[in-house]
UniProtKB/TrEMBL annotation:
InterPro entries named among the record's database cross-references: TMEM64, VTT_dom
Protein name according to UniProt: TVP38/TMEM64 family membrane protein
VTT domain residues: 62-177
Keywords: Cell membrane, Membrane, Transmembrane, Transmembrane helix
Coiled coil: none
Pfam families: VTT_dom
Keyword Protease among UniProt keywords: no
Subcellular location: Cell membrane
Species of the source: Vibrio tritonius
Family: Belongs to the TVP38/TMEM64 family.
Amino acid sequence: MKLLKIVFLCALCVLIYSESDSDIWMHIADKNWIANYIANDGIRGLTILLTFGAIFTACGGPRQLIAFTFGFTFGSILGVVFCLLSAITGAVCTYALAAWIFRDTLTRRLGKRYKKFKGFVDTQPFSKVLLLRIFPLGSNLITNLLSGVTGVPVLSFIAASLLGYLPQTIIFVLAGAGVGSASQWQLIVSIILGIVSIALTHYLYQRYKQSLHSEEQLGEHSNV
């Protein structure tokens, strides 16, 4: 197992180093440059872009920027697929590093945040991670690290991340695709989905607060 951890870490370091001098780092916010890059480099360019997207999001970069750029470059459907692929790959890499290699170090450094998160996800880890993914104020990087450190089941982590990433991914991909094709309906749909996403987030957060209130009441009755 120790050898596997070393191999995984070395492979990840080589992958990051191989992309460290890529022009994509300087032009990721330039949707026209990215579109031309893919048009000129084909499959190789696509592979590098997906790899970059995974590294970018794994390091805490905003998924919304990747989604908008991919939407402009690839259109609605492929933009959503490629953005989710990059984001999930990046999340799993960060989760794996936290769970397999840096668990002891992160547990000490995260301290109270570790204990608070562990108490939060001990029950219904899928729904709790899903809530954090959908809630727009949550830190993607911290959620990945804490999920790995606290031992959130990997399938629950991936499934919750995939569903939680989907609303904002669709919104920003459609916005990017609408700009790329000058399509007003895609921009309008992205705005409507943004409103729906906010409403859904509010609903889930209220349900979470209600469940906390119910648990507190149950604890008070059990102590009587």
